[in-house]
Each structure stands twice: as C-alpha cells, then as structure tokens.
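Blinded run. Sample ID left blank on purpose so nobody reads anything into the name before looking at the predicted structure. Input follows.
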Amino acid sequence: MKNCIAPDNQATRRIRKVRLGRSLAAGLIAGSLAALLSGCGGAYSPTTPPLPSPAPAVSPTPNALVIEIFGVNGNMSFTPASASLQVGQQVRWHNADNITHTATQDGRGFDTGFIAPGDTSAPITVSAAGAISYHCAIHPSMVGALNVTP
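Blinded prediction complete.
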C-alpha cells in the first residue's frame, strides 16, 4: 500500500526555496544592520548608557562690584576710591560723568578701555588676592584701589 501523503517533489522544492530565500533575506538584513552600526563608530550595544554624574558643588560667586565714576565741579573721582572684594569676584566701572574715562591698572594688568558717559565697563574678574592700584588713563590724577581678599 502506498503512503497517502507522499511528498510532492515540486512542492518540496518550492518550500525549500522559500525557506532558503527567507534565510538569505534574514542574513542580509542582519549583515546590513551590523555594517551600518559599525560604520557609525561602533557595534550595536543594547545596554543602557550610564547616567551623568552630578556636578560638583560650586561655591557661589559674590555679586559684581560696581564703582561709580563722578565728575563734581571738575573734581573727578572713583567712588568708592578704595573698594574691597574677594578673589573671583567681578568689578565694573559705571561712568556717571559727562566725559569719557577709563579704569587702568597701574602696570597695565587690566584696562577697561574707554567708558563713554552713561556706560558701564565690561566686567573684570579679580583672580589673585592683594592690593591693586588703578587710574584713569585719560586723567592720570584720578586714582583708585582694589583690596582683594581670598
């Protein structure tokens, strides 16, 4: 007696071709994916990236000090004439006079450049403790001092 479910050679060949085609397609997809990922700088890694570490605590920077430049009846001055601040603190000069001035460190450590009437200089950050003398480069008799503490 013959087997009732005899394999059909043509049907078997078709099933094998479909399976082979699926295997080839899966291999091509996997190979393409690997090539794409390696072209992006590394292999695919399903791991979760590490969380960023918290930023270290930073001590707050003291507020910026603003020194006023006045011209009272021709008596030009920096106010306060002697100012105290801390290392890392910023200082700015505001020209409340009606003529241009500068704030220039003796020995040319810093120079605000020209400060027009009504303008405020860019900030200068003090990086070392000690006494700093400065003057107006336009009016050398105008002098001031910064006393910087750690």
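Unblinding after everyone has recorded impressions. Helices lie at 9-39.
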